[in-house]
Specification:
Structural class: mainly alpha
Number of helices: 4
Family: Belongs to the LysR transcriptional regulatory family.
Organism: Microbacterium aurantiacum
Radius of gyration: 27 Å
Number of strands: 2
Distance between the termini: 80 Å
Protein name: LysR family transcriptional regulator
InterPro entries: LysR_HTH_N, WH-like_DNA-bd_sf, WH_DNA-bd_sf
Keywords: DNA-binding, Transcription, Transcription regulation
């Protein structure tokens, strides 16, 4: 079982609403559905009754919930130090001409005299 799948399952189990769970996790709704589908396939039993309103957990889902919470709590957390920002800034490789300003004559083109 993947840790991300378990996190998504716990979010759905707490809200009993797939769209709200996806919003709280900051992921798309299809990602939540596919995570729950993978868990259901791995366990061999449905975890939620989806065709009823509101969504309800099955007995298998209620049995998995404490184990999922324990695995999430036991998992190592990511380091709190932020990753270094991008690389070295590069200068543009322009032609050395002034930028074109809308409504002004082109700075590199000579005006036609009369």
């Amino acid at each position: 079982m993947k840790l991300t799948d378990l996190r998504r399952f716990v979010a759905v189990a707490e809200t009993l609403h797939f769209p709200r769970a996806a919003e709280s996790l900051g992921v798309g709704l299809p990602a939540v559905y596919s995570a729950v589908d993978r868990l259901e396939e791995e366990i061999g039993h449905p975890l939620f009754e989806r065709n009823v309103t509101p969504t309800r957990m099955t007995a298998a889902g209620e049995a998995l919930l404490p184990e999922a919470r324990a695995r999430i709590a036991a998992a190592p957390t990511a380091p709190s130090t932020p990753a270094p920002a991008g690389g070295k800034a590069k200068a543009s490789k322009g032609k050395g001409r002034a930028p074109i300003v809308k409504g002004q004559p082109k700075p590199y083109k000579k005006r036609q005299g009369r």
